[in-house]
Amino acid sequence: VDSCFPVCRKTLGEARWRRLSRSFYRDWPLHTPWFREIPREFVRYLAEGGIRQPLPAWLAELAHYEWAELALDIMDVSTPAHDPAGNLLTKPVALNPAMLSLTYTWPVHRIGPDYRPRKPQPTCLAVYRDTNDEVQFSQINAVTSRLLSLLAATPTTGEAAIRQIATELQHPAPEQLLTHGAALLDDLRRQGIVLGSLS
Length: 199
Description:
This protein is an alpha+beta fold. 45% of the residues lie in helices and 15% in strands. A hairpin with a 5-residue loop joins β4 and β5 (135-140). The radius of gyration is 19 Å and the shape is elongated.
């Protein structure tokens, strides 16, 4: 737990962190023999454990954000057959299978010993493993988050997903959104969040 949540530990302070760790081991029913699953249980404990000590409102989300890095690092996935140079508008989009699109109430990527937010600030992040097996974090907006969720839900073309978003937003110029969406998909491909088109 100490090694998986270094930012939580530093930001909370050693004394409060020790009390929290002890209460987790004492009060939370751990049902796993796997060490690497204990951090996930700690995240669940913070989210729903009914903890007695007062904690910052953002701590549970910060812990989830830190856990996501471990989750991606050990995620066992197979890469789908795809064309890296495929047309992302007209062909079904192949997403990086080692990717999580996350939405938080707090700016978790900025929280640390020198910054403790007082007010919520909705934040969307894509967390993914790149071709070098390094975990990367990319801040995205709500529309990009929605696009990734549509592409992850079922194989679909970039154009179909963007047009669905245009309908949801009641966008006055869907063709303009399609142009922006095409550039966004290319940027996501450059980052490694999108792999290409499905073969």
